[in-house]
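G.,

No rush on this.
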Amino acid sequence: MHTSQTSVRIAMWSGPRNISTAMMRAWGNRRDTVVIDEPFYAYYLRTTGKNHPGADEVIAAGEIDWRKIVAQLTGSIPNGKRIFFQKQMTHHFLPEIDREWLGAVTNCFLIRDPREVIASYVKKREDPRLEDLGFTQQVEIFNFVRRRLNSIPPVVDAKDVLENPERILRLLCDAVRVDFGKSMLSWPPGLRDTDGIWARHWYTEVTKTTSFQPYHPTADEVPERSREIYERCRECYERLYRHRLH
């Protein structure tokens, strides 16, 4: 049992086309937790000029000064809550953003088989570049945190979560030193006030859910044109996979 009332800031680092929004739903359904959705997204779009759906709207609505974002993530927790769950995208965390603030939050990592990520990505958008998929950035962040802590930060794999949500969430909660709550296993359908303004473009499926969905392996193969990128992503994935909670 982790009965301390000390505040906890949890940054979960994931790439795109993962179960990160469902994970945000799980944490957001706790009474002691407030969540934030991809806080660096507007900064990322403004800086890179990536042509994402609704990009202008995201930039207009979001914070584009990374220093102010960091101050928000490490400052007082909103709404008087004890836990601040931060859904973070690894590819949004551009190299010029200072990494030192990661020492002020509890970092954990959500990974997914790159074959499944790429198969999902190409259905939504054009063929990805390596930097669009977040695997190399995820390893970089993981290594920074590992060096900073001199210990291995928690890693969970999407397949493991979907196959046994309660077991993996219990392990994750224990690793980040908070008590597991059954409320994390189900939630009401629909959008949330805490969802990013981009939710209507990206969250169509998750808004229909009320729990983690059963794992179904994809039959889709990586397109030949993406094989080289896949191999690079696979190397990164395997580095973190060996450390996963299971």
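When you get to it, here's the other one too:
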Amino acid sequence: MAGHPLNPEAGSTPFPDDPREIAAALRAGELSLELTPYYGFRYGERGRRFTRSDSAFLVTLATHPRPVVERQIRWLAGLLANRGMPSLLLDQHLRVLHRALCRAIPRRAASYGRLLEAADLLRDTRRALLPDEDCGALARSFVREAGLPPTRLALGVGWLLAGAVADERSGSRSAVSSVASWFTDPELFPPRFIAAVHSSLAEAALTSARGTSPRRS
């Protein structure tokens, strides 16, 4: 039996038959990797291969009824969150993938709308636990405490930390520890950065539990 054409480690993971959809999935995967350098820093080339196969798998969901899509997306979001990839990253990728597919095959836009609905599901679940306003404030707080300039990359770390807390409150039991284990590695990051990670995770958990906003400036 032939292996997966995009990732030998993906086994029997489904992928689309239409080469245009495969090409769109690959383009979306590359863009998501560019938007989130964390993928490359942490997961390297193996992560790139799984981005390809996972992106192609997501395309196949567009042909299924909404309940099936939602069930599969919730499952995948939980799986990835427990492996260090908060669901806000899957939310982002679904939106990127939706745009790529609609540009590649406009006449199937209605079908691809299932992916956008799935992204909205993840976004709404996260916002119910930690609204975007609070995530943004937490990200800015992290940057200040870590002593970093407020670049997109630095703020993105804060968003990842907040997203992991929301995922754990949503039921992904290892979401926080799987993210924290990498961002608190003393061989990769300095003490001030690590202290800011711990502080931000604690603040995000408190904010989510109380439904109150963190420090703002």
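DSSP finds nine helices and no strands in the chain. The chain has two domains: 13-129, 132-210.

Enjoy the weekend,
O.
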